[in-house]
Request: fold
Amino acid sequence: MIVYIIVLVVYLGMLAAIGMVMSSRSKSVGDFAIGGRSVGPWVTALSFVAAYYSSVVIIGGGAFGWKFGLSTLWVGAGNVLIGTTLAWIILGRRIRRFTENLDAMTLPGFFAGRYGSAEARIFSAAATGLFLIIYNVSVLKGMANSFEVLMDLPYWSGVVISGVVILFYTSVGGYLAVVWTSFVQALVMIAALVLLTFMSLQKVGGMTALVDRLNTVDPGLVNTPGVWGWAGLISFTLIVSLGTWGMPQLLVRFYSIKNDKMLRLGTVIVTVGASVAMLPYLTGAIARVLVPELASADQAIPALTKLVLNDWGGALFLAGVVAAGMSTFAGVLIIISSSMVNDVWINGLGRTLTPAAELKANRVMSLAVGVISLLIALRPPALVLVLTAFSWAVIASTNLWPLLFGLYWKRTSPKAALWSMVAGVTAALLWQAWPRLGWLPDLPAGLAGIHGFVVGTTVGLVVILIGTFAGRPARRECVDKAWGSR
Amino acid sequence: MAPFHLPWLTFGAFLVLGGTIILAFIWAVVDKAREGGDES
Reply:
């Protein structure tokens, strides 16, 4: 236990120190929200990886690997190809250029500038803000569960320890503290995952031995799609891969990179770094051989950690899991606070603030949103627990098409973008809530397995296409400004 | 049978990963070359 405490105290102290150092560099709202567009490719790329993979992904990915076997490696491959590399190639440069041309610091701010639509700004800020808080509760809960299992600490202390450290460095150091701590956290997370995979593979006798032993348990754990089936495998891979294209805490990395030339090196670094996405699934499958008797699949990674790593290794792995959660939580916190202050308070409600007051408001808002998330996470109400399961789907359904069409199709109608958001969110929510609404008939078995993300984004796509063909494009000056034509 | 006694369809996940890393390198090189061409 003493080893765990030493590693965590050193690690958390280092994060707090980064927050202190970065506080002197956050002198304006632009610095606080997007680091003054001054971040280099290494930090941008690895902080993207850290914000993408939360502790829920590591523990949950291991659970999927344990339950469904090696076909889950496709989820990791999808995370790298669709969720990372293609996102950087297709979205990166245009988001960097457009947000600079439009002087936008948030995704709702981009919608307002690109479409000239205050309604799109407010709707996106409200829907994304609300569901990001719920998403953050689930991330905090995942971190606290890791403390609980790996250190035998009570749940509440895990919430408080991780929550307080994040609140400190985020509110003090702003976005720069978030990306620099995320950079460190990505290195810790990658080291922890590589160590666990290496030691587990050694214990199981190598990759070929793993496959042979899984085959004796159930050939469905080796084949693709195996015991999972195509519907589950494809829809889950799409949710956690294409979904990133609408997640503001990841997209903000493109706003803040120093210039668009740095996206080249960044794309290579992020692709290599994101490759660790395969490891939780692989180690989960190894756990199926080494620790076959578990009360719940969620225990696969913690149980494997205790089996194959010594105290120092276990402490490093806990630090890695906590790192994954902290970087995601902090990234989301900065997005919500800048969106609430800039999009809702200043632009939505028409309040005027001096630059100093705006910076202070951002700091206070990040603190307030963090405290609210922390308090909810201490005793999450049943409704919040239900909503966490599809917060990702709702956020992606809100932003995905209006962003992609806004970047590539000048004709896209502002009204179509707004209604795509509204229809996408409504469809995703209704679809997920359907089984819980007792007065509706049951869905056919084939349809019931489809995730709300697929329904929400499909409806959103149809609406934006029809609306654009039927409606008017954005005002000429908005389009010209976004494309940098004037 | 693919390496490690894996079925090809499962091993394909590793091939996609390797292909993605190569894609990122090629995109970066082509993008740099294209910019050089634009400048000249």
Summary: Chain B touches chain A at residues 4-7, 9-10, 12-14, 16-17, 19-21, 23-25, 27-28, 31-32, 35 (CB under 8 Å).
